[in-house]
Amino acid sequence: MSSKEIIASRAAEALTPYSIINLGIGIPTLVANYLDKEKYYLHTENGMLGVTSVDEEDIDPLIVNAGKQPVGEGVGASYFDSASSFAMIRGGHVDAAILGALQVDEEGHVANWSVPGKDIIGVGGAMDLLVGAKKIIITTNHTAKDGSSKLVPQCEYPVTSNRIVDMVITEHAVFQWSEEKYELIEVMSGSSISEIEEKTAFSFKVHPSLLQKEG
């Protein structure tokens, strides 16, 4: 299983059945592969509730998610305009949003929409989801392509929102926001606390149960 699939499968475990979920672009889209289609309701900000995967031969070019990827319709799926979709988000009707990240800092902030000096199409729904969704889960590789940590003391890229991210999942670790600090609550298979400390630039605490295991 690739690192992205490991992250996506763990994110699926963090979701509550029969909840409304919004999946961002990139690793978050893979989460759908690990969800029971009858127990989760996938929402996309361009105007659909009841998103499912679709076989290549059944693709309808007019049915896409916010990332322009072809999607299918679940039983009972509904359509609405973008304004109504964002009203759902801003009104607190999305139970969880799973988003990618360029960086997450130790204050709980995420940067995931802009790299200075590079052209962008727009922020999309990231800001609204960070403000309106009840739970925010970040799925990201632990380090960037140059080997630098994506978990940093302070975001160097423009912060998407002041909302604190509830959970961060990488191929090495699961962090959860707890008492004004991230807490390492799970070490992924094949990793160790020492490796995570080496690859993480922000400060964090370790759940006592993990220290007992390594001790």
TrEMBL record:
Gene Ontology MF terms in the entry: CoA-transferase activity
A Pfam family that the UniProt record links to this protein: CoA_trans
Keywords of the record: Transferase
Domain of life assignment: Bacteria
Family: Belongs to the 3-oxoacid CoA-transferase subunit B family.
Protein name, UniProt field: Succinyl-CoA--3-ketoacid-CoA transferase
